[in-house]
Protein backbone atom coordinates (compact mmCIF):
# COMPACT_ATOMS: atom_id res chain seq x y z
CA UNK A 1 0.00 0.00 0.00
CA UNK A 2 1.34 3.44 -0.82
CA UNK A 3 0.02 4.89 2.45
CA UNK A 4 0.44 3.75 6.01
CA UNK A 5 -2.07 5.07 8.52
CA UNK A 6 -1.37 5.29 12.21
CA UNK A 7 -4.39 4.85 14.47
CA UNK A 8 -5.09 8.21 16.11
CA UNK A 9 -4.69 8.73 19.82
CA UNK A 10 -7.89 7.92 21.76
CA UNK A 11 -7.79 11.27 23.62
CA UNK A 12 -7.50 13.19 20.37
CA UNK A 13 -10.47 11.36 18.85
CA UNK A 14 -12.54 11.88 21.99
CA UNK A 15 -11.73 15.58 22.02
CA UNK A 16 -12.63 15.98 18.34
CA UNK A 17 -15.92 14.12 18.79
CA UNK A 18 -16.80 16.28 21.80
CA UNK A 19 -16.05 19.49 19.89
CA UNK A 20 -18.11 18.37 16.89
CA UNK A 21 -21.07 17.39 19.06
CA UNK A 22 -20.85 20.64 21.07
CA UNK A 23 -20.59 22.50 17.75
CA UNK A 24 -17.61 24.55 18.90
CA UNK A 25 -15.96 24.14 15.48
CA UNK A 26 -16.91 25.73 12.18
CA UNK A 27 -15.36 23.04 9.98
CA UNK A 28 -13.65 19.68 10.13
CA UNK A 29 -11.46 18.90 7.13
CA UNK A 30 -11.12 15.23 6.24
CA UNK A 31 -8.22 14.36 3.97
CA UNK A 32 -8.93 10.64 3.66
CA UNK A 33 -11.72 8.13 4.10
CA UNK A 34 -9.63 6.52 6.84
CA UNK A 35 -9.97 9.68 8.92
CA UNK A 36 -13.75 9.47 8.56
CA UNK A 37 -13.68 5.81 9.57
CA UNK A 38 -11.50 6.56 12.59
CA UNK A 39 -13.90 9.27 13.76
CA UNK A 40 -16.97 7.02 13.56
CA UNK A 41 -15.59 3.56 14.33
CA UNK A 42 -15.97 2.29 17.88
CA UNK A 43 -18.11 5.28 18.89
CA UNK A 44 -21.30 4.36 20.71
CA UNK A 45 -23.42 7.24 19.39
CA UNK A 46 -22.37 8.01 15.80
CA UNK A 47 -25.75 9.65 15.17
CA UNK A 48 -24.64 12.53 17.42
CA UNK A 49 -21.69 13.23 15.14
CA UNK A 50 -23.87 12.97 12.02
CA UNK A 51 -26.46 15.33 13.48
CA UNK A 52 -23.85 17.94 14.36
CA UNK A 53 -22.18 17.67 10.94
CA UNK A 54 -25.54 18.06 9.21
CA UNK A 55 -26.67 20.85 11.48
CA UNK A 56 -23.83 23.22 12.32
CA UNK A 57 -20.29 21.91 11.80
CA UNK A 58 -19.29 21.79 8.15
CA UNK A 59 -17.62 18.59 6.99
CA UNK A 60 -15.08 19.35 4.27
CA UNK A 61 -13.71 16.50 2.17
CA UNK A 62 -10.61 16.36 0.02
CA UNK A 63 -11.77 14.31 -2.91
CA UNK A 64 -14.79 12.28 -3.85
CA UNK A 65 -13.78 9.08 -2.02
CA UNK A 66 -13.61 10.95 1.28
CA UNK A 67 -16.90 12.72 0.53
CA UNK A 68 -18.56 9.39 -0.29
CA UNK A 69 -17.40 7.92 3.01
CA UNK A 70 -18.98 10.83 4.88
CA UNK A 71 -22.20 10.48 2.89
CA UNK A 72 -22.32 6.73 3.56
CA UNK A 73 -22.15 7.55 7.27
CA UNK A 74 -25.20 9.80 6.90
CA UNK A 75 -23.55 13.19 6.53
CA UNK A 76 -25.59 15.07 3.94
CA UNK A 77 -23.84 18.44 4.11
CA UNK A 78 -20.34 17.87 2.70
CA UNK A 79 -18.14 20.64 1.27
CA UNK A 80 -15.77 19.66 -1.55
CA UNK A 81 -13.28 21.91 -3.29
CA UNK A 82 -13.11 21.97 -7.06
CA UNK A 83 -9.72 20.22 -6.92
CA UNK A 84 -8.42 17.61 -4.51
CA UNK A 85 -5.71 19.85 -3.09
CA UNK A 86 -5.41 21.23 0.44
CA UNK A 87 -4.51 24.75 -0.73
CA UNK A 88 -7.55 24.94 -2.99
CA UNK A 89 -9.73 23.61 -0.18
CA UNK A 90 -8.58 26.33 2.22
CA UNK A 91 -9.10 29.08 -0.37
CA UNK A 92 -12.57 27.83 -1.29
CA UNK A 93 -13.56 27.36 2.36
CA UNK A 94 -12.47 30.92 3.10
CA UNK A 95 -14.64 32.16 0.25
CA UNK A 96 -17.55 29.98 1.38
CA UNK A 97 -17.49 31.40 4.91
CA UNK A 98 -17.01 34.94 3.60
CA UNK A 99 -20.11 34.62 1.41
CA UNK A 100 -22.02 33.03 4.28
CA UNK A 101 -21.16 35.90 6.64
CA UNK A 102 -22.04 38.50 3.97
CA UNK A 103 -25.57 37.06 3.84
CA UNK A 104 -26.12 37.53 7.58
Q: What is the CA-based Rg, rounded?
A: 14 Å
Bin the helical content.
Answer: 55-70%
What structural class do the secondary elements suggest? mainly alpha
Counted beta strands: 3
Taking strands numbered 1, 2, ... along the chain, how are they ordered across the largest sheet?
Answer: 1-2-3
- Please outline the major beta sheet: 3 strands, parallel
Between the first and last Cα atoms, what is the distance in angstroms?
46 Å
- Overall shape: it is globular
Query: What's the overall average pLDDT, rounded?
Result: 91
Q: Which spans have pLDDT < 50 for at least 5 consecutive residues? A: none
Order of helices and strands: HEHHEHEH
Determine the strand fraction and express it as a percent band: 5-15%
Q: Helical region count?
A: 5
What do these coordinates show?
The protein is built from five helices and three strands. The chain has helices spanning 10-22, 33-40, 46-55, 64-72, 86-103, and strands at 27-30, 58-61, 78-80. It is mainly α. Helix 1 crosses helix 3 (46-55) and helix 2 (33-40) runs parallel beside helix 4.
Describe the structure concisely.
With 104 residues, the protein is mainly alpha-helical.
Give the secondary structure arrangement, pairings included:
Blueprint: H1 10-22, E1 27-30, H2 33-40, H3 46-55, E2 58-61, H4 64-72, E3 78-80, H5 86-103
Note the main attributes of this structure.
3 strands, 56% helix, mainly alpha, 5 helices, 3-stranded parallel sheet, 104 residues
